[in-house]
Specification:
Layout lengths: L3 E7 L4 E4 L6 E10 L11 E9 H10 L5 E14 L5 E14 L8 H10 L23
């Protein structure tokens, strides 16, 4: 199984391009994801992970995601390689986004989130667009 779940901040606005063969939208950006632990006396480290989003997911990311925003990405890891003009082989590992969510708390005057809410309905970090509701009652649990 190849499944990745990330939460981090965009290091730059998504960059949009289109494929030459069938004009498909591709958005790419980098996500700074904090490591879980920090060594004593040191600042917490972050990994900078390249994300690629295709078609509708890419359109959503390019339209609503901005540098500095905290987002959630669900996708898969992909590796690829190519030879450049000098014959040097290059390797890259990236995450192909299959789902993308806002993870920041809602702020007043945030036009991007307001536009999204008006178009698609409100999505909060707690439910991340899910149809499930978490309750504190244990009466209905099957165990």
């Amino acid at each position: 199984m190849n499944k990745v779940i990330l939460m981090g901040r965009l290091t730059r606005d998504p960059e949009v391009r289109y494929t030459q063969t069938n004009n498909t939208l591709v958005a790419s950006f980098s996500l700074a994801v904090n490591r879980r632990f920090a060594r004593q006396g040191e600042e917490r480290q972050a990994d900078f992970i390249n994300i690629v989003a295709w078609s509708k997911t890419g359109e959503f990311c390019s339209k609503y995601f901005k540098k500095g925003q905290q987002v959630g990405i669900i996708g898969r890891i992909q590796t690829r390689n190519w030879d450049d003009d000098q014959g040097v082989k290059h390797y890259i590992t990236e995450v192909v986004a299959e789902e993308a969510y806002f993870a920041d708390s809602k702020r007043e005057g945030d036009a991007g989130n307001v536009a999204f809410d008006n178009a698609f309905g409100e999505t909060t970090p707690g439910n991340m667009g899910s149809d499930f509701e978490v309750t504190s009652s244990t009466d209905d649990l099957p165990f």
